[in-house]
Amino acid sequence: MNLQVNLLRVEERRRPGGLVARTLIRASAVVGGAGVLLYAVYCGLAYEQASRELHGVEARWRQLEPDFKRAEELIGRHKALSRQIGEIAAFSNAQIKVALRLRALAEIVPAHVQLTSLDWNQKHVNVQGEPMRQYLVNISGRTGGARADQTVRDFIAAIRGLPPAADFGTITPGGFSLASLDSKAEAESLFEVRAEFAPRRLK
Asked: What percent of the chain has pLDDT above 70?
């Protein structure tokens, strides 16, 4: 028969669990320290890599900065010119060809008609909320003879018959009256014709 006798005092005895706990703590400390060291090394390498990339980007930027500033200037200039072109296009679209119409008008004036004034006016109007420009023309003149009224009607018909490139829009008689002349002179009649153009877009 085998007997095992523990000769240690009670206060000298050690529990196995305490040894295991201390071993685990030491191992955790070693592993944690190694992890922190590795992380520090990784951060250092990453910092060096980022610094190299930053220096490279800064060097590249110093090369590109003059071109970038020049490009910004060109973009600003392009926008300004685009606005000017838009304004000129709007102005051009809103205009009418006066010279062409004056030439056409001169060709249809009857021999017995003398034009005394030609007033061109314009006004801004809104058509369904859209700003537009409209031209108005007052044509004044005089004619003589017994058929003065028919001469004026023929003149108005001739204006209305002008083709679109030289048309005067909507034509309406503005007035017709006899001129106060000396009794010995040939009787003359004064007349007025109004022309109203269709509104033109300001764009």
From this structure: 79
The confidence score (pLDDT) of residue 115 equals 93
pLDDT of residue 146: 78
Q: How far, CA to CA in Å, does 147 sit from each of 21, 36, 119? A: 132, 116, 26
For the chain, counts of helices (H) and of strands (E): 3, 5
Record the tokens describing residue 154, joined without a space: 């023929």
| Tokens describing residue 195 | 């022309």
Which tokens is 141 given? 């003149």
108-132: b (≥16 Cβ within 10 Å) or e: ebeebbeeeebeeeeeeeeeeeeeb
Asked whether the predicted pLDDT for residue 87 surpasses 90, the reply is: no
Average pLDDT over residues 68-73: 88
Read off the pTM. 0.54
Query: Strands 188-196, 200-201: parallel, antiparallel or unpaired by DSSP?
Result: unpaired
Distance CA 192, CA 156 (A): 10
For 152, residues 6+ apart whose C-beta sits below 8 A from its C-beta are 113, 143, 173, 176, 189, 191
What number is the average pLDDT over the span 41-56?
Answer: 85
